[in-house]
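Lecture notes, unit on binding sites. The following record was shown on slide 14. It pairs a sequence with magnesium ion.
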Amino acid sequence: METVILAVVIAVVVLGALGGLVVGSRRKKPLPPPPTSVPDITAPPAEPHIGDEAETPRDEARRTIEEVDLPDGSAPVAVEEPPVVEEPLALEVPEPTAGRLVRLRARLSRSQNALGQGLLTLLSREHLDEDTWEEIEDTLLTADVGVAPTQELVDALRERVKVLGTRTPQELRSLLREELLKLVGTDVDRTVKTEPEDRKPGIVMVVGVNGTGKTTTTGKLARVLVADGRTVVLGAADTFRAAAADQLQTWGERVGAHTVRGPEAGDPASVAFDAVKEGKEMGVDVVLIDTAGRLHTKTGLMDELGKVKRVVEKHAPLDEVLLVLDATTGQNGLVQARVFAEVVDITGIVLTKLDGTAKGGIVVAVQRELGVPVKLIGLGEGADDLAPFEPEAFVDALIGD
Ligand SMILES: Nc1nc2c(ncn2[C@@H]2O[C@H](COP(=O)(O)OP(=O)(O)OP(=O)(O)O)[C@@H](O)[C@H]2O)c(=O)[nH]1
Ligand SMILES: [Mg+2]
């Protein structure tokens, strides 16, 4: 019995010593080297040296603000937080989609005058000499119309102006309007396909490089659909950041659309798959899938996007794959477009941030490049600042009334 007690005592002593060592070695800073000239051997080793324990040990118990006495000596009063009452979110009623482009036209023309008005001014010059035609060409190129379309337009204008002889401003305007419309294209179907004939839900996937406006567009599109009386499920297939799913969910909550999300850093393809599955089970009209932004040059990420599409198509073919392009990036958008189109068969283009650029000509260039129509345009950060692309309203906005 005694030996057991002895053993326990020894163990406690040894452990205590060890613990002290560990804590000590953690806390103590190395002592400054003793001065070489006059070694002070009289100082007791326990006396603190300069720099020793200058700061409060981190693990020392601290007083919280409640424990600190107030200056008048009165004890602090514990403030009780009022219970959080969860109010049901009032659903927003999005604006109808008809006439949106007309409403947002001012946004477009504000920055587009450079193109439309610039061309009109040039065409109205008394002498349309070579220099003027070159300026017209430059105006178009600066607006990102693209080389081939610019050449076509200039050739057509030259021909028609010649035939016209005298030019009234009115004639010039309608001539330019016609030619620009030809370039933009009036006979393509620009409806966003969300209503397959034989099944529900319609499936739309939104893709593009980082920061072009995919999530915003997905949210705005959900509102457009809800405004048109359709039901929507959102798929947060951007699993890179939790904030991305939150962002999408917030858009959904505003109009009562359910968001399907997965674990952070999870497989985007499986989130997209589940979103369509839930959409089917809930019997909604449309499932919109938001994907993570990815650089077209990262092959791994592009492959992943291809996989998302293939996995979703185990349910049904996608009705739309919308490529979101930031209009302010100009010609670089074309390079992106080409690569995305190869990987996921783009069916429509959304040009965002047209409110902040004079490079509206990109509409023409990108359609040419892909042979895919621009279906929607983003004209601001507001929730209803997404408009169906209507060539007439667009061109009218360019050249003004
Ligand atoms: N002015 C303007 N801003 C826009 C438009 N569309 C989107 N934005 C803004 O662009 C920024 C990026 O939008 P997001 O929707 O988060 O872009 P994203 O493509 O989802 O970004 P990642 O998921 O990070 O790749 C936000 O500040 C939007 O408000 C638009 O049409 N006009
Ligand atoms: Mg996003």
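Take-home: The pocket of guanosine-5'-triphosphate (ligand 1) is lined by residues 208, 210-216, 238, 244, 292-293, 352-353, 355-356, 378-381, 385 (CB under 6 Å).
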